Amino acid sequence: MAKSILHPVVQQFINANLNTDLHSLLLKKSPFPEVSMQEIVQQIKGRKVAARKFPFLLKGDIVFPPNLNLEQASSQSTAEFKAQNLKGSQFLDLTCGFGIDAFFLSKNFEEVTLVEQNRQLLEIVEHNWKVLGRNANFINENLEGFLLNNKEKYDMVYLDPARRDAHKNKKFLLEDLSPNLLEIKNELFKISEQIIIKLSPLIDISYLISTLENISKIEIIAVKNEVKELLVFIHPKINSEDVEISCANLESEDSLFCFNYKEEKSATATFSEPLKFIYIPNNSVLKSGAFNLISEQFGLMKLHPNTHFYTSQKMLQEFPGRVLEVETVESKEINKGEKFNIISKNHPLTPDEIKKKYKISDGGNRYLIFTQSQKGKLILRSK
């Protein structure tokens, strides 16, 4: 890591140009012989990312890595959520990256070890942790090499396998990740009984449970209704048939929805045509696949086996998702030029096709839902 980027005059220049157009800045010559304009712009980009993603790093002398490392790093809100109720003596992060997860996950541990194969990235993390007043053992090595030579035991081990191949294409199947979790799982159990793995939001829950043994818990984490990641807890003495699943939608008012995977297998949904209220589960709940359990646990009726909307005559307050009071309308009742938030589920028309066909646009406070019940296609309008 170039120390010159931390020179007070350089830092002053960065702060003075936080709102400058970066493209025009790149066309200019750097006023500092030891710091390129590309390096300066990267620090400005890093601070912009930090403002929305990890604001705890908006401090003097913090150094930011290249864009790819910023993109791959967890957000502060997801890292803080993951860290809840985790504590112990020794914590190990085998794939440290930019260290956001490690910073929060390790807060309640006495000794912290961070492993990262990218030397420059690790130097940045080590510098930033010193600025933030946090201590750790920083080891510049790849995961496989570390596991081969390590003799220590840890209370908790965390890893975030690489989800891109040599051509930068995204991968999410367990056998395609680097490292291959199925190959190293037993090696991990030799150093800890509590392993936490961060996985892609694209991975299928049933595939995960049937492929990776010893899962005790899966956390599905969404932020503002966008599923960001899956967190998988594995333990050598756990049978994966008894998996606890929690669904969180951070930065929303949705309550946490938790269930056991076996419960969905035995749950039965009831069905009804639309009543006074429609319930739309948030995306973390939808990702879990608990479609019948939602009906059974909340006492709600489903519109259709393949329509994951629910209905009731009386409003249920504590629901992990959106609740709308609706009425069924005919297509002729939709007026040209009206504005709606358009939702299309289990219906042949996409939102864009709906806007074009009915000559309506996005916006406003009302919702227009195109969906299907057991009796056929229908349109619902929020009141």
From TrEMBL:
Domain PG-1098 ferredoxin-like: 277-320
UniProt protein name: RsmD family RNA methyltransferase
Database matches in InterPro entries: PG_1098_Fer, SAM-dependent_MTases_sf, Thump-like
GO biological process: methylation
Domain of life: Bacteria
Domain THUMP-like: 323-377
Any single Pfam family the record assigns to this protein: Thump_like
Keywords (A to Z) from UniProt: Methyltransferase, Transferase
PANTHER family (alphabetical): S-ADENOSYLMETHIONINE-DEPENDENT METHYLTRANSFERASE RELATED (PTHR14741), TRIMETHYLGUANOSINE SYNTHASE (PTHR14741:SF32)
GO molecular function, one term: methyltransferase activity
